[in-house]
Amino acid sequence: MTVEVPEVQISEHVELPAARTALLVVDMQNDFVHPEGSLFVPDAPKTVPIIRNLIERAREAGARVVFTQDWHQPDDPEFAIWPRHAVAGSWGAEVVAELEPLPGETRIHKLRYDAFYGTPLEHLLRLWRIEKVVVVGTVANICVLHTAGSAALRWFEVVLPADGVSALTPFDMQAALRQVGFLYHGKITNSQGLVFT
Ligand code: ZN
Fold first, then answer.
1. pLDDT band at 69 (very low <50, low <70, confident <90, very high)
2. Which CATH architecture has domain 17-196?
3. What is the pLDDT of residue 6?
4. What is the whole-number distance in angstroms between the Cα of residue 10 and the centre of ligand 1?
5. Does 60 participate in catalysis according to the annotation?
6. Is the peptide bond before 96 cis (omega within 30 degrees of 0)?
7. Could you say which of 11, 34, 141, 157 would form a disulfide bridge with 30 (CB–CB 3.0 to 4.6 Å)?
């Protein structure tokens, strides 16, 4: 079977008011991003410098940066679907060293694919008067898509720099871009086209 991928519209230039924008760095944890991680995504390491640059630009502009971490109990039912990963407090659950959050930056310990589910993420974004969320990280069609979708369902404007997102397969990547762009009306961009104002 061959499936034709609908064209994804890329927004070349997107301005982000720093005070109303949060950068969500999704699950850039050792288990997904480090080659020795238990659920390694081979395309994830090449997004690290791109995400790092975006984090630096967001910090410089005064935009909020939020790090999500998949955070499971040792008997989590998700381990019937995926190999054991991101067990609370383990090395695999830590954010990769290159993207280490600064003291005081927010970490969201997530229970499932959607970083809003059962966490204070929405509460914090509302307190901070955030209107736009830039979502990067991994895995494209899993935690990135569900978090971006959940943000859009709450009427946050979603911006997805595709070069800061990694997937297990090209199909998964295209599926995620399609859903964010078409269904959730988010902007698909490249990281260099983002400008914090
Ligand atoms: Zn998980």
1. very high
2. 3-Layer(aba) Sandwich (3.40)
3. 92
4. 29
5. no
6. no
7. 34
Largest CA distance in the chain: 50
List residues bridging with 16 in a β-sheet. 196
- Strand, helix or coil for residue 43: coil
Amino acid in the structure at residue 35: P
Q: How is residue 112 annotated by DSSP? A: S
Question: 72 C-alpha vs ligand 1 centroid, how far in Å?
Answer: 7
pLDDT value, residue 57: 98
If you average pLDDT over every residue of the chain, what do you get? 97
Structure confidence at residue 51 (pLDDT):
98
Structure tokens at 157: 């404007």
Q: Tokens 């895995």 appear where?
A: 139
Q: What's the CA-to-centroid distance between 31 and ligand 1, angstroms?
A: 10
Which helix H or strand E contains 69, and what residues bound it? Answer: strand 64-70
Catalytic residue among 22, 24, 93, 143: 143
Q: What is the sign, positive or negative, of the torsion defined by CA atoms of 67, 160, 167, 179? A: positive
